[in-house]
């Protein structure tokens, strides 16, 4: 998801953005416990157990985990709070009904993964920047925003560059925009 040498802030942003894609897709998202609590690969697990799958099955100390989750500066806490915010944002949107419609939008330049869910006045545009540089995305003419762009994993974030026609998505960042979708026939 992020380069191994990337700083924690970049790794967290990329990890949460990948989960924002999952949360926007049709169906009911499943979040692995170790993802929810920000576990990293447990390389010692393979040596201790003799199985490669142990890398994702660290046995956590409950007291230590609780302390890390309570400390807002830790990677675990930042991921945990980000995923909880994402799941709350997802739950609040009828556009993300598990069986609701989906449209994948082709974005010029390949930096943005764009997915539109829902239809009519209950639509949600999901934009994920899969690059390490900020990227502008031109909103489809068939989509009319009804909210400011927001990061579902970070309630404090606000769009730095936004017009009714485009939005700037931060490096490896995620933006959701509520709105109205007139349908593919009104695309251009």
Summing up helix and strand content along with how strands pair, one would put the structural category as alpha+beta
Q: State the end-to-end CA separation.
A: 33 Å
Largest sheet: 4 strands, antiparallel
Strand content: 15-25%
What is the global morphology?
elongated
Poorly predicted segments = none
Strand order of the largest sheet: 1-2-6-4
Q: What is the N-to-C order of secondary-structure elements (H for helix, E for strand)? A: HHHHHEEEEEE
CA radius of gyration is: 18 Å
Treating each run of at least 4 consecutive H or I residues as one helix, how many helices?
A: 5
Helical residue percent band: 25-40%
Number of strands: 6
Mean pLDDT: 85
Can you walk me through this structure?
The structure is a single chain. The protein has 188 residues and is α+β, with helices and mostly antiparallel strands. The chain has five helices and six strands; from the N terminus they run H-H-H-H-H-E-E-E-E-E-E. The chain has helices at 8-24, 33-36, 43-49, 62-70, 75-91, and strands spanning 102-105, 112-129, 135-138, 143-145, 166-169, 174-181. The protein has a four-stranded antiparallel beta sheet. Strands 3-5 form a two-stranded antiparallel sheet. Strand 1 (102-105) and strand 2 form a beta hairpin. Helix 1 (8-24) packs parallel to helix 5 (75-91) and helix 4 (62-70) packs across helix 5. The two termini are 33 Å apart. The mean pLDDT is 85.
